[in-house]
């Protein structure tokens, strides 16, 4: 075939079309792969490199750290940025080294040119410390101090260090338990006493109780407050003792320019020497870090630590949303399909409802903020929580309003899916039931709806998948970057619908774009994104498989 | 089924031995069943209608929040009484404090009378310490929020006072104690050392103290900069004064105004001219510009600054009301410029009172008509007859909810004022507006500023165009890929492969946009910035490479070609695409060195193209990615459902597969494809997170692919939580949500209707 004929036949167009879908596929797979690779590699302990660099002006410096990424770029770009480079060089390779130690240098990620670097080595005793403050620490351990006295050096140092870190971490866990749970509980009860007092004042002013009644109730409350104050004092004393205890040990380590640096043991979460680890111990550490990421609380303005509150918040919110959206969505679908008189009006309503699925989610957020939060929430506050005013209880964004907004957002999804399921049920089944004398309700609830359950499930799963990934409306109606407490805890009434929550999607936005140290936060954002993607892809695949299964099933029955 | 139909009549035929419950019981059961049927019918009906109603509520509520923007201003007379205090003396100035409980009247005798605004009952009278034997010859007030007044005296001195209010809460009830403070001390300040009477005076407090400008009897224009420091220990007030003499104004001066930044001074004369003095360096002060601000033969009858002291509102004896401010020309010279002309009154203007925190003002005229105007939105909100005689004074409350009006006959009216949203007009939202300090009318969105006297700029044009820009680039990227991909998948692709490809692309639709946005902002944007040439080489090389690969494939021996059956071309193309992509990226730094002098970004800047790291290109790719599945899915359905007998007929007549696509498939499926594009557009318009994260969110107006934008949706997300509930800004954001809602709703509905039509057409074919 000649080129001319080939063009005439139109085959080039077919190839271009094939190319378009190939590009789309590559983009999808590439995107998922990018998130996977970056997300999963976050937990793998990477080796610590050491190299000596002779800079352009002849200074020598030693670099210790992890390789973050490398780049080849025209030398001109760097010259424009003020980095001196010889004129005969056209392209330069540079490496982004994570050298940590933000408390020592202020900068933890630094670009270094490859030019002038000696061979990279991986010293076995190079150490990485995961810390509660200032990010990671890289250096070489020197000795351990207990109240200023050296207790370990040389060979015994490493086991001793591990053991003392474990001790410090145990104490720290205890401190956190007391602060979070016990003091949190006392605070919660104190707040309720305070609100009770205010309520009494309000009731007195409205004349619903007498002065004597109020005084008596006040005395009760004062007694309660006294007890709480005492409890608090006890807890505080215990905390003070623990804090003193945890500050006992210090690790002295050498940083890359040879200086010695003291790190309180209380700050250290984990010490590892990745160059000295084999694949097995690395895998163990990988799993451990992965688990900590999923189950831990965030640290350092969310840029480190775990994402448990975000997962918990997302799941709680989606769960409450499902409870609301399922019955209403199903009812509406049944009404539209089974009861409403079919006609032009219904067609308009149906198209409108379907189209609401295409309305920008931010519009739902605006509606949620205006109607739910300010309008309904404000009314609830005035009528049921006057004692807490002017600080709002429900008149501020929170879990309940976030769930309501998302329920509204996902209603069309559930309605569409359920209607589709109902319409797929062969009319012979319906007629059979009616012919046997069943009423319409009996036919509906005992025959049609059970058959359509999988369709409703599909709708619900799609709704959940959509809700879990939405961020824009939630920014307006209840999601915050850092919620001090979880929406469900051991304090009465256990489920706190008025609390603000954390959310995976918002976490990504916040950490990726609002955090002061984006470079350090990036791996964590990828890991969070991975969690969210996995969650949503799994939900969607489930929905798709249910739908396909369903189609096959009814195709068989209706034939 | 057969069992039941045989046994049931059998049972009925032997009533004596029936196992059925008795007739009564059955009737009861039947009743119960019908009752349940009814409950189900009405329950489901109520639930269904409720849900539909709840969804409709979104429209209703958004309208409800936007509606107050359309409500005009209104006043109603609350009470009327005669002017409190000394009736002999003239009233010079009238105002209200922020709780609208007390009013204050400064009289020509130098007495401040504080009275209850609702009944005129005098709360306190304070006589300013005017020295013995000296007469009051002139009066001026500063900007309303400074609450300053100045009396010019016949001995060349001036006394400066400030009305102030102490709050206390005896028995939990607010009690206001009015007082007059003397920021420059109780003793009069010397303005004219020569001691001639001050016939015109102006005062303004600025960051560096007070400026007093005065015109003496012998037509000298003087200016004093006064700074006072209070000794913390002794409480003594130390006054430092710098005096300057300015060139004398031409004509007979009617009024002097000094701006709050102490850089300009305005003098109005009795021929309707306004003179502008540059006093930024007082020793070199000079008259820069003069302008006729009312028609020849008429006079300036009232004049005052708007809040911020940048604009002057001038009222004339012909009833005209106009806004003037200084506009800088090409040679960096300031000129007095008439910016707006408001609806004129029928009678001469007698008084102009600016609002305290907004760019609105209230005008009284000689026929007793009150006018409410707003500068930025160029609106006249109300003109109403409130008294019979000329209005002499208007005292406005700082929160714009009440006002005092005094007429010629010393009648005092307390008016209830409702003027919540004067800033909005169709023009202010969608047309060019000449904002204060700008050299020409512009479209600007800038909703908040650092200072109190900031003029909010609510033009929706930048954000609307930003929305369209983002959607345009997204569609530019997504439409060809999605439609071509859909044609191939639906028409050419092998069936097994299709069952894998279609769900994979559709999964993209469910991908949270926050992830796309994050990747676009943190990964793609820096990547593109450092690999700019690669973007363009991929764009050019990719189609070429596909064609070359396709043609090369036809040249392959049959033994190789049989491994990849028809409809699997994609398998050959994937490695080709990956290779071209990798080559382009790897060669990118080299291309920069060879063609762009080392840095393409720098090169762009040199040829005059602004480059932002987070720009429309990044948004286009990221949002295109989000839109592709929407378009693909619907378009693919439309192509796939083209009846087979049509295509088979075409093929049977000898057309090649591609000719069949162009001649038969596309014409039939084009409405569906069009609907798909519309749906995609609808999604691109409303997308929030991607644009929020992948652009700089600066509301600029241009279609440069290398610059960012701010869209309606991102604007809402950024600003709604920061604004006060019920404020104009809040309602404008609701309005933009409503615009988004209606826009996407219309687009989607149109697409849906087209699709339904198409479905019918297919079934008829």
From TrEMBL, chain A:
GO MF term set: phosphate transmembrane transporter activity
One annotated Gene Ontology cellular component of this protein: plasma membrane
Keyword presence, Transmembrane helix: yes
Keywords per UniProt: Cell membrane, Membrane, Transmembrane, Transmembrane helix, Transport
InterPro entries: MetI-like, MetI-like_sf, Phosphate_PstA
Location(s) in or outside the cell: Cell inner membrane; Cell membrane
Keyword Transmembrane appears in the UniProt entry: yes
Family label: Belongs to the binding-protein-dependent transport system permease family. CysTW subfamily.
Protein name: Phosphate transport system permease protein PstA
Organism the protein comes from: Ectothiorhodospira magna
TrEMBL record, chain B:
Any one biological process term the GO annotation gives: transmembrane transport
Superkingdom field: Bacteria
Keyword line: Membrane, Transmembrane, Transmembrane helix, Transport
Domain named ABC transmembrane type-1: residues: 464-751
InterPro entries registered for this protein in UniProt: MetI-like, MetI-like_sf, WD40/YVTN_repeat-like_dom_sf, WD40_repeat_dom_sf
PROSITE patterns xrefs: ABC_TM1 (PS50928)
CDD domains cross-referenced by the UniProt entry: TM_PBP2
Membrane topology: Multi-pass membrane protein
Transmembrane segments: 39-64, 470-493, 505-528, 534-554, 566-596, 616-640, 661-681, 732-751
GO CC, alphabetical: plasma membrane
Compartments, as annotated in UniProt: Cell membrane
Entry keyword annotation includes Transmembrane helix: yes
Main location group: membrane
Family recorded in the similarity comment: Belongs to the binding-protein-dependent transport system permease family.
Protein name as catalogued: Phosphate transport system permease protein
Species per Swiss-Prot/TrEMBL record: Ectothiorhodospira magna
């Amino acid at each position: 075939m000649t080129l001319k004929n080939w063009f005439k036949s139109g085959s080039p167009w077919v190839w271009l079309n094939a190319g378009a879908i190939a590009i789309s596929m590559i983009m999808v797979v590439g995107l998922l792969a990018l998130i996977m690779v970056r997300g999963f590699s976050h937990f793998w302990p990477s080796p610590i490199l050491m190299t000596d660099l002779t800079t352009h002006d002849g200074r020598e410096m030693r670099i210790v750290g992890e390789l973050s990424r490398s780049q080849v770029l025209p030398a001109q770009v760097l010259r424009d940025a003020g980095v001196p480079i010889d004129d005969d060089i056209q392209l330069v390779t540079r490496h982004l080294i994570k050298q940590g130690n933000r408390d020592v240098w202020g900068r933890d990620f630094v670009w270094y040119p490859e030019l002038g670097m000696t061979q990279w080595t991986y010293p076995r005793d190079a150490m990485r410390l995961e810390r509660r403050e200032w990010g990671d620490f890289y250096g070489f351990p020197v000795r351990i101090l207990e109240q200023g006295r050296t207790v370990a050096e040389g060979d015994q140092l490493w086991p001793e260090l591990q053991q003392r870190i474990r001790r410090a971490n145990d104490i720290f866990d205890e401190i956190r338990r007391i602060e979070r749970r016990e003091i949190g509980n006392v605070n919660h009860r104190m707040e309720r006493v305070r609100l009770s007092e205010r309520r009494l004042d309000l009731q007195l002013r409205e004349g619903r109780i007498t002065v004597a009644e109020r005084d008596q109730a006040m005395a009760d409350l004062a007694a309660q407050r006294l007890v709480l104050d005492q409890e608090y004092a006890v807890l505080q004393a215990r905390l003070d003792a623990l804090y003193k205890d945890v500050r006992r040990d210090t690790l002295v380590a050498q940083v890359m320019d040879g200086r010695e640096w003291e790190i309180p043991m209380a700050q250290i979460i984990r010490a590892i020497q990745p160059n000295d680890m084999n694949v097995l111990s690395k895998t163990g550490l990988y799993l451990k870090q992965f688990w900590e990421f999923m189950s831990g609380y965030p640290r350092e303005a969310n840029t480190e630590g775990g994402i448990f509150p975000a997962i918990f918040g997302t799941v709680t919110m989606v769960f409450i949303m499902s409870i609301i959206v399922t019955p209403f969505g199903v009812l509406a679908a049944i009404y539209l399909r089974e009861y409403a008189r079919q006609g032009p009006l219904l067609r308009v309503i149906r198209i409108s409802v379907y189209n609401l699925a295409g309305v920008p989610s931010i519009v739902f957020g605006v509606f949620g903020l205006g109607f739910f939060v300010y309008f309904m929430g404000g009314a609830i506050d005035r009528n049921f929580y006057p004692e807490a005013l002017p600080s709002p209880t429900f008149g501020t964004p929170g879990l309940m309003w976030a769930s309501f907004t998302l329920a509204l957002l996902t209603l069309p999804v559930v309605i569409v899916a359920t209607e589709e399921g109902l319409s797929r049920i062969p009319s012979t089944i319906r007629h059979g039931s009616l012919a046997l004398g069943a009423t319409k309700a009996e036919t509906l609830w005992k025959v049609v709806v059970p058959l359509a359950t999988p369709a409703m499930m599909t709708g619900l799963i799609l709704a959940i998948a959509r809700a879990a990934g939405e961020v824009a409306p939630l920014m307006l109606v209840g999601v915050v970057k850092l919620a001090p407490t979880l929406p469900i805890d051991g304090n009465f009434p256990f489920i706190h619908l008025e609390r603000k929550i954390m959310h995976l999607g918002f976490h990504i936005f916040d950490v990726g774009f609002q955090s002061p140290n984006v470079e350090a936060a990036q791996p964590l954002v990828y890991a969070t994104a991975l969690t969210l993607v996995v969650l949503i892809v799994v939900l969607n695949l489930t929905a798709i498989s249910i739908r396909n299964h369903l189609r096959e099933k009814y195709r068989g029955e209706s034939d | 089924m057969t069992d039941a139909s045989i046994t049931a009549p059998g049972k009925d035929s032997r009533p004596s031995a029936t196992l059925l419950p008795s007739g009564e019981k059955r009737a009861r059961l039947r009743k119960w069943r019908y009752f349940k049927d009814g409950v189900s019918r009405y329950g489901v009906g109520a639930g269904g209608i409720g849900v539909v109603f709840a969804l409709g509520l979104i429209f209703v509520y958004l309208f409800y929040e936007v509606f107050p923007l359309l409500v005009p201003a209104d006043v109603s007379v609350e009470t009327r009484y005669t002017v409190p205090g000394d009736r002999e003396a003239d009233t010079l100035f009238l105002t209200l404090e922020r709780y609208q409980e007390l009013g204050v009247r400064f009289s020509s005798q130098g007495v401040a009378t504080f009275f209850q605004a609702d009944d005129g009952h005098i709360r306190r009278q304070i006589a300013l310490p005017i020295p013995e034997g000296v007469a009051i010859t002139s009066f001026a007030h500063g900007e309303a929020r400074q609450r300053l007044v100045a009396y010019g005296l016949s001995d060349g001195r001036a006394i400066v006072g400030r009305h102030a209010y102490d709050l206390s809460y005896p028995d939990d009830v607010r009690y206001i104690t009015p007082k007059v403070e003397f920021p420059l001390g109780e003793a009069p300040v010397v303005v004219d050392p020569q001691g001639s009477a001050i016939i015109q005076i102006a005062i303004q407090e600025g960051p560096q103290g007070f400026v007093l400008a005065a015109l003496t009897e012998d037509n000298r224009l003087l200016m004093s900069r006064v700074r006072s420091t209070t000794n913390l220990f002794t409480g003594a007030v130390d006054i430092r004064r710098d005096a300057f003499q300015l060139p004398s104004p031409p004509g007979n001066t009617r009024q002097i105004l000094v701006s709050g930044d102490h850089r300009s001074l305005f003098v109005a004369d009795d021929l309707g001219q306004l003179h502008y003095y540059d006093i930024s360096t007082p020793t070199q002060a000079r008259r820069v510009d003069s302008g006729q601000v009312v028609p020849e033969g008429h006079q300036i009858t009232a004049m005052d600054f708007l809040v911020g002291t940048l604009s002057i509102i001038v009222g004339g004896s012909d009833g005209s009301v106009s806004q003037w401010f200084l506009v800088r020309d090409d040679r960096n010279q300031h000129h007095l410029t008439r910016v707006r002309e408001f609806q004129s009154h029928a009678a001469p203007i007698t008084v102009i009172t600016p609002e305290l925190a907004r760019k609105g003002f209230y005008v009284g005229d000689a026929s007793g008509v009150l006018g409410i105007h707003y500068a930025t939105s160029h609106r006249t909100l109300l003109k109403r007859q409130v008294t019979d005689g000329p209005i002499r004074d208007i005292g406005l409350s700082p929160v714009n909810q009440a006002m005092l009006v005094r007429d010629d006959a010393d009648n005092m009216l307390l008016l209830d004022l409702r003027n919540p949203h004067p800033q909005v007009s169709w023009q202010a939202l969608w047309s060019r507006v000449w904002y204060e300090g700008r050299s020409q009318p512009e479209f600007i969105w800038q909703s908040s500023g650092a200072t109190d006297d900031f003029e909010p700029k609510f033009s929706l044009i930048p954000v609307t165009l930003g929305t369209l820009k983002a959607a345009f680039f997204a569609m530019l990227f997504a439409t060809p890929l999605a439609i071509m991909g859909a044609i191939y998948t639906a028409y050419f692709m092998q069936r097994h492969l299709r069952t894998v490809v279609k769900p994979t692309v559709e999964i993209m639709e469910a991908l949270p946009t926050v992830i796309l946005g994050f990747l676009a902002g943190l990964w793609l944007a820096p990547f593109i910035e450092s690999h700019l040439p690669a973007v363009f080489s991929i764009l050019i090389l990719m189609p070429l490479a596909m064609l070359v690969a396709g043609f090369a494939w036809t040249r392959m021996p049959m033994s190789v070609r049989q491994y990849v059956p028809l409809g699997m071309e994609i398998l050959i193309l994937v490695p080709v695409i990956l290779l071209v992509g990798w080559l382009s990226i790897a060669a990118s730094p080299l291309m920069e060195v060879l063609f762009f002098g080392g840095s393409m970004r720098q090169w762009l800047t040199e040829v005059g193209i602004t480059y932002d790291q987070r720009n429309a290109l990044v948004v286009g790719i990221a949002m295109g990615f989000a839109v592709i599945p929407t378009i693909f899915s619907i378009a693919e359905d439309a192509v796939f459902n083209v009846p087979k007998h049509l295509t088979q007929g075409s093929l049977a007549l000898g057309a090649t597969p591609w000719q069949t696509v162009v001649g038969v498939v596309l014409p039939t499926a084009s409405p569906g494809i069009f609907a798909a594009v519309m749906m995609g557009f609808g999604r691109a318009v409303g997308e929030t997170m991607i644009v929020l994260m992948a652009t700089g969110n600066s509301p600029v107006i241009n279609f440069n692919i290398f610059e960012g934008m701010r869209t309606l949706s991102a604007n809402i997300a950024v600003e709604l939580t920061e604004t006060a509930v019920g404020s104009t800004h809040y309602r404008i954001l609701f309005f933009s949500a409503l615009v988004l809602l209606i826009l996407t709703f219309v687009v989607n509905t149109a697409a849906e209707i087209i699709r339904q039509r198409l479905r019918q057409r297919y079934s008829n074919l």
